[in-house]
Specification:
Elements (H helix, E strand, L loop, with lengths): L1 H7 L22 H11 L6 H9 L28 H16 L4 H15 L26 H4 L2 H18 L8 H9 L11 H15 L1
Helix pairs in contact: 1-3, 4-5, 4-7, 4-9, 5-8, 5-9, 7-8
Length: 213
């Protein structure tokens, strides 16, 4: 476990960027507060495979983009959402589902950024039309029953299954802008909105992975 913590604190860095307006689905801090938070909270993080290599005492060589938290440049200015125990629990669920499906940490970052934009990482019981839950999935669109899409584990698994289908048709998905992969699943009217949560999503995914194993 000491190796795991050390590996997460080493390797490729997460760069912060300027601040944008809050997501339409929830509050964000002011640019001044958020910038100060990012300066304090941003720290180098490594991919999950590098963590496991460190724990095993081996070196894995070059990491695939899918195994990296941030394998490409961030798109545009970034925003920050205050974290709460409920939000952190939902992040842990998303990360656990992604790792259980062997989809890599980049998939978890995409999923978390999507959930921040769609629901502010809260399992909400309302939304546009019949949209519900972390990812605002619509029962009428075949995502599942209302009870299913408001179960964070089910909702995360459903999103990741759809993301996997997108990935299968887009071999370069891991180095695409984050919003592009998210939009490949969500078909949102505001596709670029996912981009502004990438830095925070990478940070909270790394933190969740650190505590899962």
């Amino acid at each position: 476990m000491i190796f795991l913590g050390t590996a997460l604190a080493c390797g490729g860095g997460v760069a912060t960027a300027g601040m944008a307006s809050a997501a339409t689905s929830g509050p964000a801090t002011s640019p001044t507060t958020a910038a100060a938070h990012h300066a304090a909270a941003a720290q180098p993080v490594n991919s999950w495979r590098a963590v496991m290599d460190a724990a095993a005492g081996t070196r894995g060589g070059s990491l695939a983009p899918s195994e990296r938290l941030m394998p490409a440049a961030v798109s545009g200015p970034q925003s920050y959402l205050p974290m709460t125990p409920a939000r952190e629990a939902n992040v842990a669920t998303i990360v656990r589902e992604s790792l259980n499906k062997h989809m890599g940490l980049r998939s978890a970052v995409i999923a978390v950024a999507t959930a921040i934009q769609e629901s502010t990482l809260l399992n909400i019981q309302y939304g546009t039309y019949d949209s519900l839950g972390l990812f605002q999935q619509r029962p009428s669109a075949g995502w599942g029953t209302p009870a299913q899409v408001t179960d964070p584990a089910y909702a995360s698994d459903a999103f990741l299954n759809a993301l996997h289908q997108y990935q299968a048709s887009n071999p370069g998905w891991a180095t695409q802008p984050l919003w592009q992969a998210a939009q490949g699943v969500q078909n949102s009217g505001f596709p670029y909105a996912y981009a502004k949560w990438e830095v925070q999503a990478a940070q909270v995914v790394a933190n969740a992975a650190r505590h899962l194993f």
